[in-house]
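Entry: Phosphatase
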Amino acid sequence: MSRTSGLPQHELTAQLLRITDELADRFHSVFSRETVAKVVDETYDLLAQNATVTTYLPVLTGRFARQRLTDQSRAEDMTTITVPQVLFICVHNAGRSQIAAALLEHHAFGKVSVRSAGSNPTGAILRTVTDALDEVGISLIEAFPKPLTDEVVRAADVVVTMGCGDTCPVYPGKRYLDWDVADPAGAPLNTVREIRDDIDRRVRDLLAGIKP
């Protein structure tokens, strides 16, 4: 398949093969190399669908493929995970769900595993969102919008939706919450600060009720 990444085709192919090799080694006791290669290829194509800047797609593919394999192994009880996992979902994974995930990770100190995703992800996180979180000492430098995939829902113990309707699949045995939170898209920084603080209160309450 011909792909666009801002890189020559042979270099892109080499990078994806290197990612596959690294992840196959990391998950060698859980997944076959063929399974890892399939996830890497699928992950690249998922991210490429909505990417506005393609130069860093291989790097993001490596990060997201690793997360997906981790979640798949957890969902299928193929690994031992000792902390609960929370998934935040909004439409674009560029605002509310990114804020919530960053704040929960900040407050949880590793006691909770955190994920975020979008039912229709965009190419970049909102600048006002990164600015509002920077103000409270939280960096989103490594965060990026990610599509909602089946394994991330199956791996979650708590699923929090924020304005994404009925696009999230429902699995038994999970706790589902729907937060009525304003959308920061197009809002000035002062308003985004209010949204951040609203989400922060909700995240703290959620964390207090999660059993380790």
